[in-house]
Amino acid sequence: MKLEGKVALITGSGQGIGRGIAVRLAKEGADIIVDDRADDSRAQETLAEIKALGRRGCVVSGDIGQSDNDRHIIADGIAQMGRIDILVNNAGVERHAPFLEVTEEDYDLVLDVNLRGAFFTTQAFAKHLIDDGRPGRVINISSVHEELPFPNFSPYCASKGALKMLMRNLAVELAPHGITVNNVAPGAIATPINTKLLNDPQLLQRLQQNIPLKRLGTPDDVAGLVAFLASPDADYITAATLYVDGGLMRNYSEQ
């Protein structure tokens, strides 16, 4: 149990990849702060899984796209659990539209959640660590689309590309404080955000032809890498993007 004694906060952990990460880190011994937009049944289900593993946990909530909420989420997590050692910026959204039809509303939503949220949540977390004189981990759930074009999802790609550069910059700035910052970049993962894909056999087959391992990933595939980056085994890794994509990045073509 390499994370025993640590407290981890995972944004957007009411379902999907976020829930998978929360459960895996709990299995590694961490106590967990579950974050979601609302303290609803989804967040409580994740918390129940955490407690069933014998770990402590709590729920914090708020719109991650608003910087005041980002600071509140960190403060509330500290108030309930006493400290935070690991931050996983997982919350994310996407909107499908050709570039010429993207609305300001959708642009703002995607950039606010995917980039602003990670920026100001990390800022509040880093201040907490520095004030306490402790090292820590920041792990951003990015996407292969921080590097790979994705037509009709321009705001999403812009947010993930910016997250790549933000990660690199923060890794350099925060390294003197013992804080590492890395990105985990999933490819096609079987989660609620891909419901349309999962329900369309033709689309799914076409995508799987682009994946050398010939399957979609699972939240557990992502969570395993996050657990590694959060552990002492990754003490000397920072400013890196690690891909969890079944080889998609090296074999992708638009069809």
Q: How many distinct beta strands?
A: 7
Total helical elements: 8
Low-confidence stretches: none
Radius of gyration: 17 Å
Strand residue content: 5-15%
Tally of distinct domains:
1
The SSE order reads: EHEHEHEHEHEHHHE
Large-scale geometry: globular
The first-to-last residue Cα distance is 44 Å
Give an account of the 3D structure.
This protein has 255 residues and is α/β, with parallel strands linked by helices. The protein has a single domain (7-250), classed as 3-Layer(aba) Sandwich (Rossmann fold). The chain has eight helices and seven strands; from the N terminus they run βαβαβαβαβαβαααβ. It has a seven-stranded parallel sheet with strand order 3-2-1-4-5-6-7, with helices on both faces. Helix 4 (104-132) links the parallel strand 4 (86-89) and strand 5. Helix 3 runs parallel beside helix 4 and helix 4 packs parallel to helix 5. The longest helix has 29 residues, at 104-132. The chain starts with 6 loop residues before the first strand and ends in an 11-residue tail after the last strand. The mean pLDDT is 95.
